[in-house]
Each structure stands twice: as C-alpha cells, then as structure tokens.
C-alpha cells in the first residue's frame, strides 16, 4: 500500500500544497518550523482521522482561515482509495472514502494503516500510564475493528459506575442490585479487552526484543512487561474485593483502565536510567515492532512516517535503521530532516533511491 498523491488547503502553516510521492523513500527537508511535521500530520489524518499531535481539530486550521481540507490518493492491492478529510470551524468533521461519507470514523481505522515515529513519542516513556495504554490501543485497533467499540463500551460503564459511587457517597443510599449489574457489564467488556491486550503483548514482545537488539547491536538489555491487575485475579473478583475502597474514594480502582507497560533497562526503569539515545532507541523499537506486527496481521506493509529520526542517535544506530530500509523491510517511508546533505549522504551510503522534497515557509518543492 502507498500514498500516491497528497494535497491540502489551509492546513496548519500551509495555504495550498500538493505533491506526488514515490513508492519508496520520500524525504522532506527544511529548516525548523518549515512545515515538515505538519505534512506528516496531514497523512496521519488520512489514515487515522485525527492529528497525531493535537486532539483539537479546529486548531489545525490555518490561522485566519475557516476550514481545512486534506486529500489523498492511496493505492492498495492495485486499487485507488481516494480519501478526503475536511474541518470547518464549529462543524462536524467530514471524512470521505471514494466520495462516500463515513457513518462512523471508527470504520476507517485500520484500512490504511500507518506507523508514526516522532520526538513527541517520548511521552510514552515519561508520562503517565494513559500514554502507554493509548499506544497499545492504537496498535490493536488498527488490526481489530471491534476493539475500539469494546473500549468505548467499557469506558461508558466505568463512567456510570463512578457516577454511582459518587451518588452513594452523596446520598448515603446504596443499591447493591444496580452495582451488581454495572459490575457484571464492566467485568464482561474489561475481560475481553484484557484478553486482547494480553494476546497482543505475547506476540508483540518478542518482535520488540528483536528490533531493539538489532538497532542497539545487543549493547544493552531492555525489558517490556505488560502489567494488569487482571493477570492476578478475575475482574469480577477485583471489583468485589475493592468495593469498600471504591466507595471511600468514589471511583473504580480496579480494571483495565489501570493497565500499564513497564519499560526497563538492565532491570531499572527506562524513564530514570535510560540515556536520551537509549530511550529513543527503545521508542523506535516499539514503533518498528508495531510496524512488523501490523504487516504480519494485515498481510501488507503500512506507511512508515519518521519525523526527525536521526537526532540523538549515534551513527551505528542510524546505520542499523537505514539497513532495515535498504533490506526492503519497509514499504513506503516518509522521513523528515533539517539537512539535505545528511539525508543524501545516508541514503547514498546504503544505495537507496530517495525522492527529496524541500519544505520552506509552507511550500513544498520536489
Ligand atoms: N493552525 C496553524 N496556523 C498557522 N500556522 C500553524 C498552525 N499550526 C502550526 N503552525 C505553524 O507550523 C509551524 C511548525 O511546523 P512544523 O512543526 O511542521 O515544523 P517542522 O518543519 O517540522 O520543524 P522542526 O524541524 O522544528 O521540527 C510553526 O511555525 C507553527 O506556528
């Protein structure tokens, strides 16, 4: 699968731009603030119906304009898929595939899979557990279209249960039957999500280890561990056990909304003991494992977007990464950097052809 054409109007710092991409490596080169990351984000919209960086759609509209539009022509299994996304201020997002509106945006997720590697991914290591759950959910939902519905259902019941806990505390009235109904619903969808996450991690972890070892050349030992209260007890048991505590705290303290991933380097937390380059290598390995996982599941290669990938990595690790590109492990790659000479040098060294685009002040020149 690849993106053949991309065009947009009033998207972030662009007024109007359009490009034709190569099926292999496409490099977008320009100074800081030129619009390279914005361009990758436009592609992210077409694949996942939203920005990678900012959940507020209206903030992606060019300052002073009142709408943005992104169009893309993808080629998948020899067939064209024309995708269009447009946002008008204070209006619902419009998303079309082959000129037909989607009823539910969730139906588009996974159709044109994509993996983004960005400096902002550092939040997966340094921020709270929500970021790590988002990572797992994002990967699974690109291969399993029931997963998102399952998550929505779980969050809805969780919200109802928390509201009930608060009401019990406010009014002093406790209806055990109503609580039992909510617990049953929560346990049902929570257990399904847990099983999917656990199954996913069993497949994903060895792929991740392989990628990390390759990039780091075995220089350090790292560990990726799925943590869930449900590994020890069934959710219905946990909800029961924690009921008194939940009533005091007025929120549900057990469930898959507490799941986390633990990242270690030489058995110590990556967040505190990993160097910037090791953390970056860890994140790249996570994302490349996502790439391999999606490829294996879907039977075709997703798009790979590498934003500012060379920064903080030593030469050895850059070479290893680029070796993967040259080994034909990847399909279409979109990469950004600030130096034409560096991009040309890296790809010349591995004898890979690269389509170079120069980005400056909201203009893209091939
Ligand atoms: N809604 C918007 N309207 C106008 N300009 C915007 C909007 N959103 C972002 N920008 C501008 O886009 C520019 C940032 O572009 P982008 O992040 O793509 O840069 P970049 O080329 O990736 O730079 P770097 O090399 O620093 O990562 C900034 O100048 C920012 O002000």
From TrEMBL:
The keyword DNA repair applies. Keywords: ATP-binding, Cytoplasm, DNA damage, DNA repair, DNA replication, DNA-binding, Nucleotide-binding, SOS response. SUPFAM superfamilies: P-loop containing nucleoside triphosphate hydrolases. Gene3D superfamilies: P-loop containing nucleotide triphosphate hydrolases, RecF/RecN/SMC, N-terminal domain. It comes from the Bacteria. ATP binds at residues 30-37. Residues 3-341 form the RecF/RecN/SMC N-terminal domain. Its main location: cytoplasm. GO terms for molecular function: ATP binding; single-stranded DNA binding. It is found in: Cytoplasm. GO terms for biological process: DNA replication; DNA synthesis involved in DNA repair; double-strand break repair; SOS response. GO terms for cellular component: cytoplasm. The RecF protein is involved in DNA metabolism; it is required for DNA replication and normal SOS inducibility. RecF binds preferentially to single-stranded, linear DNA. It also seems to bind ATP. Belongs to the RecF family. PANTHER family: DNA REPLICATION AND REPAIR PROTEIN RECF. This is DNA replication and repair protein RecF. It comes from Mucilaginibacter terrenus. The lineage of its organism: Bacteria, Pseudomonadati, Bacteroidota, Sphingobacteriia, Sphingobacteriales. The gene is recF.
């Amino acid at each position: 699968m690849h993106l053949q054409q991309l065009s947009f109007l009033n998207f972030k710092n662009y007024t109007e731009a359009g490009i034709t991409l190569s099926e292999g490596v496409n490099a977008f080169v320009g100074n800081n603030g030129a619009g390279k990351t914005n361009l990758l984000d436009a592609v992210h919209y077409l694949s996942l119906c939203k920005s990678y960086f900012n959940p507020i759609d209206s903030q992606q509209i060019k300052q002073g304009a009142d709408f943005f539009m992104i169009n893309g022509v993808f080629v998948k299994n020899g067939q064209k898929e024309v995708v269009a996304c447009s946002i008008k201020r204070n209006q619902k997002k419009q998303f079309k595939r082959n000129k037909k509106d989607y009823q539910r945006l969730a139906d588009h997720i996974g159709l044109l899979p994509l993996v983004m590697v960005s400096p902002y991914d550092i939040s997966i290591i340094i921020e709270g557990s929500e970021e790590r759950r988002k990572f797992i959910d994002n990967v699974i939902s690109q291969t399993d279209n029931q997963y998102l519905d399952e998550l929505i259902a779980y969050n809805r019941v969780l919200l109802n249960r928390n509201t009930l806990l608060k009401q019990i505390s406010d009014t002093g009235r406790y209806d055990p039957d109503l609580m039992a109904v909510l617990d049953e619903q929560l346990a049902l969808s929570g257990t399904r999500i847990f099983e999917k996450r656990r199954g996913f991690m069993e497949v994903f972890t060895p792929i991740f280890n392989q990628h990390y070892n390759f990039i780091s050349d075995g220089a350090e030992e790292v560990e990726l561990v799925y943590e869930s209260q449900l590994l020890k007890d069934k959710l219905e048991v946990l909800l029961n056990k924690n009921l008194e505590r939940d009533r005091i705290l007025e929120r549900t303290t057990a469930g898959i909304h507490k799941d986390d991933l633990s990242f270690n380097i030489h058995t110590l937390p990556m967040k505190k003991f990993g160097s910037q380059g090791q953390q970056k290598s860890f994140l790249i390995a996570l994302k490349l494992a996502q790439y391999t996982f999606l490829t294996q599941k879907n039977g075709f290669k997703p798009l790979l977007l590498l934003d500012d990938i060379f920064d903080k990595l030593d030469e050895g690790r850059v070479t290893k990464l680029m070796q993967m590109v040259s080994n034909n492990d990847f399909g279409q790659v979109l990469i950004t950097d600030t130096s034409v000479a560096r991009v040309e040098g890296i790809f010349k060294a591995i004898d890979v052809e690269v389509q170079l685009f120069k980005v400056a002040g909201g203009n893209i020149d091939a």
